[in-house]
Design a protein that fits this description.
This protein is of the alpha/beta class and about 325 residues long. Helices cover about 50% and strands about 10% of the residues.
Length: about 325
């Protein structure tokens, strides 16, 4: 497979890392161009000498491109799609924005049906680097969610799958409404909680003294509140239905926690244990494992069973039957 020119609209770490991964893979490309209206971002990426061109000229950036990667704020998406629609050489558009349902509606209304449009979102497990530290390894081994429009042809989808597999990532598919609900719960809800936490603690008259007690915990919980407010507002409004649902779920969870404070049993402990274990399950990958599959003895276990007998061998190895605590279970 050979791509012609690739254009990244918006200078952000994920879009740049995706383009760099393609460039450094076995996929043959001509030019890779990055575009932004922000002069500081353009100059920063230019200094890295990673791409064939980095500029502020949208027309120049799109001219001759066959693949466009959008990694721009939500409020910029409609105008970018309008510009893309004027370039007949563009075959495929990948959009990294989180509000996929709204973007899909815009794409269906604006783009010609001959252009393959696919929402795409890598599931990052580490903090995003800044643009001066982007890497072609950022997306390696990650799951990347794909959401093609109904008019996107099979060939475009196959080409995008090929690209993702060539850069060492794992493609999977979701319906856009499913994605937006999951994205809201796993990403946008944390922004709302962070803002609510900051507003709850800083609007009291005691904040004038309480701020002296604010340390690393306050810094960590308030980090998401530092995201651009205009972008946050736009994303929340386009995700309002799933966001309202998850806010209500969060309120219900907090009310349950409040009730446990009044109980005289182990409800409060169990509340914290459940949260501890669910986080540990996610970290250990236990959710994707078949926990009910039969245990297959290792070579060392088989040898120990032959020499010592099964029961003694398991006791000495610490693998003493089904009561063995799983790595995500809280030690009791």
């Amino acid at each position: 497979m050979k791509l012609q020119d690739i254009t990244i609209l918006g200078i952000q770490p994920i879009g740049l890392s995706l383009a760099l991964s393609i460039k450094n893979s076995s996929i043959k490309t001509n030019n890779i161009v990055a575009y932004s209206e922000n002069s500081d971002l353009v100059n920063s990426v230019k200094s890295l000498n990673l791409f064939d061109d980095v500029n502020k000229d949208l027309q120049k950036s799109l001219d001759g491109s066959s693949l466009v990667i959008i990694d721009s704020p939500l409020i910029e998406i409609p105008s970018l799609l309008e510009s893309i629609s004027n370039y007949p050489d563009i075959k495929t558009v990948l959009n990294l924005n989180g509000s996929q349902s709204k973007c899909m509606t815009w794409a269906n209304d604006i783009l010609d049906k001959s252009i393959g449009y696919i929402g795409i979102r890598p599931i990052l497990k580490t903090e995003q680097p800044d643009i001066t530290n982007i890497s072609d390894l950022l997306l390696e081994d990650l799951d990347i969610c794909l959401m093609p429009s109904t008019s996107t042809d099979k060939k475009s989808i196959e080409n995008v799958i090929y690209i993702i597999e060539k850069i060492g990532a794992n493609p999977y598919f979701l319906e856009v409404s499913e994605h937006d609900s999951y994205f809201t719960a796993m990403n946008k809800l944390s922004d709302v909680i962070s803002a609510a936490y900051v507003n709850a603690t800083t609007t009291k008259s005691s904040w004038i003294e309480m701020y002296k007690s604010a340390g690393i915990e306050f810094d960590q919980l308030s980090t998401n509140a530092t995201k651009d407010p205009v972008t946050n507002e736009a994303e929340c409004l386009t995700l309002s239905d799933p966001l309202i649902y998850w806010i209500e779920e969060m309120i219900a969870s907090l009310n349950k926690f409040k009730d446990t404070l009044k109980s005289e049993n182990d409800d409060l402990l169990n509340y914290f244990v459940h949260a501890w274990e669910q986080k540990a399950k996610w970290e250990s990958g236990a959710l994707s494992q078949n926990l009910d599959s039969p245990h297959m003895p290792s070579a060392s276990e088989a040898m120990g069973n032959m020499i010592l007998g099964g029961k003694l061998s398991k006791r000495l190895s610490g693998n003493d039957g089904p009561s063995k605590r799983k790595n995500w279970q809280y030690p009791k």
